[in-house]
Amino acid sequence: MTVRAALILAALAAALGFCGACTRSDRTAEASERSVRAVKVEAAQVRDVRRQVDVVGTLAATEEVVVSAEVEGRVARLARDLGDRVAAGGPLVELDQEKLKYKAEAQHAALDQARAKYGAAPDGELPALDRTPDVQRTSAQLADAKQQLERAESLAARKLIAQSDLDQARTRFDTARAAREAALASARQLRADIEAQAASLRLAERDLRESTIRAPFDGYVAERLVSLGQFVQTQTPIMRIVRLDPLKLTAEVPEKFAPWVNAGREIALRVDAYPDRVVEGRIVRISPSVNLKSRAFAIEGAVPNADGRLKPGTFARVQIATDHVDRAVTIPAAAVQSRYGTNRVFVVRNDQLAGREVVLGDRLGDRVEVSQGLDAGTPIVAVDVEQLADGMRVAVNK
Question: For residues 280 and 149, what is the distance between their CA atoms, to the nearest angstrom?
Answer without folding.
Answer: 93
